[in-house]
Amino acid sequence: MQDKVPGTVMRVTWLEGGELQMREAATPRVDAGQAVVRVRLAGICGTDLELARGYAAFAGIPGHEFVGEVVAAPDDDATPWTPGRRVVGEINVRCDACRECRAGRDTHCLRRKVIGIRGRDGAFADYVRVPVANLHAIPDDVPDEAAVFAEPLAAALAIRDRVRLDGSERILLVGAGRLGQLVARVLRAHGCTKLEAIARHPRQRALLAAADVPAVAEDDVEHAAYDVTIDTSGSESGLALARWALRPRGTLVVKSTHHGARDFDFAQLVVDEITVVGSRCGPFAPALAHLANGTIDPRPLIDAILPLTDARAAFAAAARPGALKILLRPGAP
Amino acid sequence: MQDKVPGTVMRVTWLEGGELQMREAATPRVDAGQAVVRVRLAGICGTDLELARGYAAFAGIPGHEFVGEVVAAPDDDATPWTPGRRVVGEINVRCDACRECRAGRDTHCLRRKVIGIRGRDGAFADYVRVPVANLHAIPDDVPDEAAVFAEPLAAALAIRDRVRLDGSERILLVGAGRLGQLVARVLRAHGCTKLEAIARHPRQRALLAAADVPAVAEDDVEHAAYDVTIDTSGSESGLALARWALRPRGTLVVKSTHHGARDFDFAQLVVDEITVVGSRCGPFAPALAHLANGTIDPRPLIDAILPLTDARAAFAAAARPGALKILLRPGAP
Fold first, then answer.
1. Going by DSSP bridges, is the β-strand pair A246-254/A275-278 parallel, antiparallel, or unpaired?
2. Which of A270, A312, B2, B240 is 20 to 30 A off residue A250, Cα-Cα?
3. pLDDT by residue (tens digit) across A193-250?
4. Cβ separation of B279 and A273 shorter than 8 Å?
5. Best residue in A160, A163, A222, A270 to probe B by mutation, most B CBs within 10 Å?
């Protein structure tokens, strides 16, 4: 057992019945395969806002985008996680035994818990418990303010694994918020030059321009003209626009937390022979590589860094139309 | 101009306002780029039944699966179509000028007409007019009763072009009717051995068994266990079952005429990272090759061959639950 084990009580945000509040909770303990990580920064994303609106009936500590430092980890791990080591963590906690884990699709583990989302406490707290197998060390030259984007950047990178892109495709990105901005940067970094984005807010358009991605007005979107469209809006109208803009045999990527069922025209899906691809989590290693070599710098997306104790205000700020990334910083231990 | 030009009047079926009737109509004339084909056999498919129920507000002569013989074709064509030559015809009539045609997706021509389906008369008639560019000659050893399946077999073959299959996939086929039986045979011919099919009717199950495809009872379908599921049912319940059986990151192929909008859970599409692929028309050349070399023999699917004048009875027979292929044979000219 390593030293610097935290005290017995910590400050956490607690979400239950759509109500967010600060409270005290027992500090996580180290046990088999699990590290305790002191949270340095944590980001609020669209899924957190959905959880706060009641999605998935989550009750517990939310927060799944985080950077922290190891305070304690099991001795017996082959790669020791020295206290103070800065880390990010993958959020799907797998069983390693079910059919999906055995097939190598461990983010789809049939018994999975998801840190801060499903059955497992998250990082809007002083400390978070993370399976050692989920940890990734952060290169020294990646500051916390960039590293905290590892999880959403990995999610943005997942598009590459789900859709073959050679850079020649005309792509429409619907939604230029938190996730959309990262998707725009990923596509630019991978040579997609024929990329346009729908951005409703001036700051979103400025951030797109800084990433060399032209914004297009909704009224100027060409019907049935894009090879690939990507909805990061999570809204029914955004999904409909992404569908409307797609050419026959094109690919519509759904890259956001939608709130359940949508009407979808399957007659036209068949007539136009389109492909619809759902995409959720992605690979951390290339995300960290992008952050380390500077090919993607997400820090301009930060709107504000608030103390953890202001979590309610932070959630309210993140829910404002046009808001980008709000980070929470827990107090010193 | 070639000889054997038909008389001025022919017998046709006429569909309008969901009503099917026999009537006389002017025999088509040869003009630029168009051949006149005497219909030898024509098949009724699910789309015809949908049209008869009012889908797409079609008014005209239906029928898009046919085998016939050329009676007249323009002189000036580079490959002369000798009178008597047996042919099948692709159904999408393209403009060769629009963005989709120029991109090589001519079945998605923005100004397309579709023989017997959209803006162009079909083959439930003594004669049908077909663009010379759409004709395919039939090898001598392929009988009419097999050749008439060229169009739906091509549609079944389209799955190969839309989804990469290496034969190792566990596949569930939902629906073992007209199109489902052809899809089953295509997948077997392409080495997909881990294929199961849902068949509601004893004759459908017998036909699957003859093609070496095991039938599975709906209650025995394993949840989230199939790599690929294919809905050929066209029903809401069939689509739901195909979705339910699909594993995370699996591919759901929609291979049927659905009647408009369906409720679809986009939250779960994202969580499970599935892919949904619409598929419509396919390539005639490999379909004819399968028929010529006998790797696929669709003739056991024929329920009955009725005279064209019995079209209403034929449509009623084709609409019976469990019905397979009903063919129409126009009278001698």
1. parallel
2. B240
3. 999 999 999 999 999 999 999 999 999 999 999 999 999 998 899 999 999 999 999 9
4. yes
5. A270
